[in-house]
Design goal:
Rossmann fold; single chain; six-stranded mixed sheet; 2 domains; globular; about 550 residues; alpha/beta
């Protein structure tokens, strides 16, 4: 018998007429073998997710549709099946783990009911039998307190717990193939490590074939048996994971691997300034929620607890921590978007904490922020020149001069000056982030606060933006507070690092020293959780 779980032969998927190319997937032929994990790796627009949706018949037609080739599964071409036949295959024989578990789960149903629904539709188990199976699945994905868990709603669970529920749903019917579409991208690094380990453990236990879609070569090194690299709808290289990662043949694969952030720490500059630009002393911030309509106790969350740090002029400090660690709250307090409960924030020797919005206005131009999401942080109704020039114009610069300066800033961040006349939707994610950086630089700040500025970007674009930030920091004499959950990114751009956990800085010092000998258990856990750490360390 063949060991092929699914075979794609000459698959072609058409894009709408107004797209930048005719085919999302251009004649791809791939086999997914039984009991293996095949990783499809590529950047946004490579066609990898479209391929996964085509297998399940979930393409957003009529404009995006399969126009050629076959997808053979258990002796049948999936393109030739009726809607009823495809519904019978979905979930039962082929299951999917989606990228964002919150959108994959019904917020109005308890998670136990959602897993039970899969069993009710596809099996003849009795209600007591189904309940027993649901509890068994919850235990298989290592969720605590199964009886309590199945009575919980999705919003009551963490991101990692929700993703485990989605995995339990995918495994409910022992499918022959699971498609995992970027299932760890939205998760913190330690949760990501747990989910990757879980998928591999369950895949081995159930003997399931897994098509794992990702853009992260660290994840590939951690989990893949075989790898296929996609670019512009075509497979440019495929083979065993060790061969593709250790000796890539295609130039594109080599370029992607070269762009992977390493774990070689950035060294402190010998000519670094000694005077302090930013000083934070004993900063505290607590969020309080009211009891709401139905009574009950309100909640208190201490987002920042007695935080103290210093940032020297023309230097960079990384704040590293997982979601909920308080790093973004600290940044918002520094930039004046949040008031502090107590403590001191000084910029260039002057106290900026405790001031009113009107009193803070003269200091706004000295501290600028680059936001995480380049799609949401730019006004879609304004032209790029107006977006960049608004800050200078509010500070008294004429419109003509502000637009002229915007043209020059666009050139400095690697875009054409005529981009001033275009709208944000006309640019890619990486280009929009460059526009956001140009906007931050327009008022000639002393300090840039960058909040996860590359987490939404592909690896090659991420590398370009990090290099750009580093070059601009040198040429403009900037200091930078860089917020990230990724130690690899921190090592690339920052000479100093502060590790945050539950509102506290648990470790701080030169990046090289912390990378050489992390002292706090939480810091060590972050290093241990870096996907593909051994492979990345070997990249040099």
């Amino acid at each position: 018998m063949s060991d092929i779980a699914l075979s794609m032969q000459g698959l072609q998927i058409a894009l709408p007429e107004w797209s930048d190319r005719k085919l999302a997937v251009a004649g791809v032929s791939l086999d997914i073998r039984q009991k293996e994990i095949l990783c499809i790796v590529g950047e946004s627009g490579s066609g990898k997710s479209m391929m996964g949706k085509a297998i399940l018949g979930l393409l957003p037609g009529p404009h995006v549709r399969a126009v050629g080739g076959k997808i053979l599964f258990e002796g049948r071409d999936l393109f030739g099946l009726s809607q009823d036949d495809m519904r019978a295959i979905r979930g039962r024989r082929i299951a999917m783990i989606f990228q964002e578990p919150m959108t994959a789960l019904n917020p109005l149903m308890k998670v136990g009911q959602q897993i039970d629904e899969v069993l009710e539709i596809h099996t003849k188990l009795t209600p007591p039998q189904r309940r027993g199976k649901v509890l068994e699945l919850i235990r298989d994905v290592h969720l605590p307190e199964p009886e309590r868990m199945i009575e919980s709603y999705p919003h009551q669970l963490s991101g990692g717990q929700r993703q485990r529920v989605v995995i339990a749903m995918a495994l409910a019917l022992d499918p022959a193939l699971i498609i995992a579409d970027e299932p760890t991208t939205a998760l913190d690094v330690t949760t990501q490590a747990q989910i990757l380990h879980l998928i591999k453990e369950l895949q081995r236990a159930h003997g399931t074939a897994v098509l794992f879609i990702t853009h992260d070569f660290g994840v590939v090194a951690e989990i893949a048996d075989r790898v296929a690299v996609m670019r512009h709808g075509e497979v440019v290289e495929q083979g065993p994971a060790d061969e593709v990662l250790g000796a890539p043949k295609a130039d594109y694969t080599k370029a992607l691997i070269a762009a992977v952030p390493g774990l070689k720490p950035r060294l402190r500059r010998a000519d670094a300034a000694s005077n302090v630009l930013l000083r934070v002393v004993d900063l505290e911030k607590t969020y309080r929620t009211s009891s709401g309509f139905f009574g009950g106790a309100g909640r208190e969350v201490k987002a920042a607890k007695k935080i103290s740090l210093e940032l020297k002029r023309e230097s960079s400090l990384a704040l590293v921590g997982e979601s909920g660690s308080g790093k973004t709250t600290l940044a918002r307090c520094i930039i004046g978007l949040e008031s502090v409960d107590s403590g001191l924030i000084e910029l260039d020797g002057e106290r900026i904490s405790g001031r009113t919005r009107a009193e803070l206005r003269p200091y706004r131009k000295h501290v600028q922020m680059v936001f995480q999401d380049p799609y949401a942080s730019l006004n879609p109704r304004q032209r790029v020149g107006e977006i960049i020039g608004l800050g200078p114009m509010l500070n008294g610069v004429s419109r003509e001069q502000a637009i002229a300066e915007a043209r020059e800033l666009l050139r400095l961040v690697g875009l054409k000056p005529d981009a001033v006349d275009r709208y944000p939707h006309e640019f890619s994610g990486g280009q929009r982030q460059r526009i956001g950086i140009a906007r931050a630089l327009a008022v000639k700040p002393k300090l840039i606060v960058a909040d996860e500025p590359v987490s939404a970007l592909d690896v090659s674009v991420q590398k370009q933006v990090l290099e750009l930030l580093n070059d601009l920091r040198k040429s403009f004499g900037l200091s930078m507070l860089f917020i990230t959950h990724d130690l690899r990114v921190a090592a690339t751009v920052c000479e100093e690092i502060a590790i945050m956990q539950r509102g506290e800085i648990v470790e701080r010092g030169p990046t090289a020293e912390i990378f050489a000998a992390p002292s706090h258990p939480y810091t060590r856990s972050l290093f241990d959780a870096v996907p593909g750490r051994e492979w990345i360390s070997g990249l040099g």
